[in-house]
Design goal:
This protein is α/β, with parallel strands linked by helices. Helix content is about 50%, strand content about 15%. The protein is built from 15 helices and 9 strands. It has helices at about 5-10, 30-40, 40-45, 50-65, 75-80, 115-125, 140-150, 160-165, 170-190, 210-230, 245-255, 265-275, 285-290, 295-305, 325-340, and strands spanning about 65-70, 85-90, 90-95, 135-140, 195-200, 235-240, 260, 280-285, 310-315. The protein has a 7-stranded parallel beta sheet with strand order 1-4-5-6-7-8-9. Strands 2-3 form a two-stranded antiparallel sheet. The radius of gyration is 19 Å and the shape is globular. The mean pLDDT is about 95.
Amino acid sequence: MPGLLLDTLRGSNGDQRPIWLMRQAGRYLPEYRALRAEKGGFLALVYDSDAAAEITLQPIRRFGFDGAILFSDILIVPYAMGQDLAFLAGEGPSLSPRLVDTALASLNAVPSRLTPIYETVAKVRAGLSADRTLLGFAGSPWTIATYMVAGEGSRDQHDTRAMAYRDPVAFQAIIDAIVEVTVDYLAGQVAAGAEAVQLFDSWAGSLSPAQFERWVIAPNARIVSELHKRCPGLPIIGFPKGAGEKLPAYVRETKVDAVALDETIDPLWAAGALPDNLPVQGNLDPLLMLSGGPELEREAIRVLDAFADRPHVFNLGHGIGQFTPVEHVERLLGVVRGWRKG
């Protein structure tokens, strides 16, 4: 039997709300920190399928979330496309060679780098009860391209935006290649046991409307279309962080099955602007999880009430912070579990 989360992503609007949190498997949990100290660096954990499965399951055991989100990273896709990937202490991820300097055609794909991720998915699915949904994920093409071109994250994606304007043909080739690998990758996750997937477009907010249409909406629409053909009935959540007023067009044109909202989106605006039957996910400010207190409860209830008339998955507007107290997560869970549609 499908659980509350999967039912909601398929359009059910019951009295209770499912909850999972972006980055729920990770460094705010003491059990994760203990395992990382034992096993080594981040990438080593991702490629140890037993460890990655254990990390994915840790928050389910502790909190009983309705969904488990695969412990991995969006940069596994460029890694499989042939770039080298490293996570540098205090600096974040680094990809080389940078595509601002090197042609895409020079990369030698290593598709076997995806295999351990599928093994993790299968192990997690085997360790989950039937009423808990396993979520797979990938980065959306624009966001992945920003890292591939610049070799690292940046505040304004200057190198990638400039390349997209300067040489749209070459940049389109990068986007097309990412789309192809991403479809295969997500379909592989589904074959291994994922029941829903999320597309993370963390840097979607940096683009003008015309560029957003070309580099966010169009490639995501292709991914959604191909996945729906290959995996009928698969719920696909789109998360175009920073999209703002472009959200209705994103939903309409990509045909995602649900949309995740960042914390800058007014829930009341979203409730009125998005299609009535569309499941939405979000969108509590992650910083409230740090501060806690009565404001955490008030804002959580405000989000819940705003989406009372549509399918709603409670989540944060982005990933849970590293220094979030575990007791604040427990308090939030109590609020969400205790809420009922009035």
